[in-house]
Design goal:
Blueprint: E1 3-11, H1 17-33, E2 39-53, E3 56-68, H2 73-82, E4 86-94, H3 98-108
Antiparallel strand pairs: 1-3, 1-4, 2-3
Family: Belongs to the bacterial ribosomal protein bS6 family.
Pfam families: Ribosomal_S6 (PF01250)
Keywords: Ribonucleoprotein, Ribosomal protein, RNA-binding, rRNA-binding
Length: 109
């Protein structure tokens, strides 16, 4: 069964435009290598953090929405945890809307 996941991560504010784009491409590629087909990425820009994280007061916020069976989340989070450029990340599993479930049942019937 496939679920919709949302991963929000914060990059260091001192990364340039090129390194930021590279990091986004790296994490999108990691998901696609593990079988995720549709990855929607939103670059939320540099924002003030609610509290200081590792001497950083600002961060570059990136949001990714994707659909998978859940086995792809662990490798993504491991890569982010080991990365020097990511200062925080959070992945949540979003509930599948009932309308989508009904459409799937009708399509298979």
């Amino acid at each position: 069964m496939r679920y919709i996941y949302e991963t929000m991560y914060i990059l260091r504010p001192d990364l340039g435009e090129e390194l930021t784009d590279g990091a986004i491409a790296k994490y999108q590629g990691l998901l696609q290598e593990n079988g995720v087909t549709s990855v929607e990425t939103q670059h939320r820009g540099k924002r003030r953090l609610a509290y200081e994280i590792g001497k950083h007061r600002d961060g570059i916020y990136i949001q990714m929405n994707y659909e998978c069976d859940g086995s792809q989340v662990a490798p993504l989070e491991r890569a982010m945890r080991l990365s020097e450029e990511v200062i925080r990340y959070l992945t949540i599993k979003q509930p599948v809307r009932e309308v989508e479930e009904e459409e799937e049942v009708e399509a298979t019937a």
